[in-house]
Structure to design on (167 residues):
């Protein structure tokens, strides 16, 4: 194995390589599942549900939810699932199926929704717990300050281009 890696200077396998690979496969799988299961009409509602759940958990007083170090993740997941089950047509934003770029819009939106969900989980999960499963680099893609801003702002900006009803 060392002979193979000697050709790649500076390439080191993380001790959590399996966790990073699992995270990547889970991310891609969830993106595809979100895109195909929710489709164009529900995908934007899911995106907004994530924002609402994340905002609600962020404003909860810490003494209400301090029973476990990962209680924020559990509350976020429960709120997200509750909102997902309850919203029938709260928002009149959709992805139009007109044009050849229909599948690209669904694909990009599903990646952004998945990124926001994963970023939210890592935001609420204690860093030490997350780093037991993935590397610092993979954690940084979703939970660093710049990554948190990216995953919160980019999906909102994408709505400006995806919502064809306004045109």
């Amino acid at each position: 194995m060392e002979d193979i890696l000697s050709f790649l200077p500076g390439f080191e396998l993380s001790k959590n390589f399996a966790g990073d690979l699992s995270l990547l496969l889970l991310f891609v799988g969830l993106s595809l599942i979100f895109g195909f299961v929710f489709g164009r009409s529900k995908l934007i509602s899911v995106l907004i549900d994530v924002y609402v759940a994340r905002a609600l958990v962020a404003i909860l007083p810490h003494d209400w939810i301090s029973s476990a170090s990962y209680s924020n993740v559990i509350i976020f997941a429960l709120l997200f699932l509750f909102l997902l089950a309850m919203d029938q047509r709260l928002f009149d934003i959709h992805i139009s199926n007109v044009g050849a770029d229909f599948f690209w819009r669904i694909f990009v939106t599903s990646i952004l929704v998945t990124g926001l969900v994963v970023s939210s989980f890592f935001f609420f999960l204690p860093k030490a717990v997350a780093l037991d499963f993935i590397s610092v680099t993979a954690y940084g893609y979703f939970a660093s300050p710049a990554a948190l801003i990216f995953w919160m702002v980019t999906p909102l900006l994408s709505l400006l281009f995806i919502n064809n009803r306004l045109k």
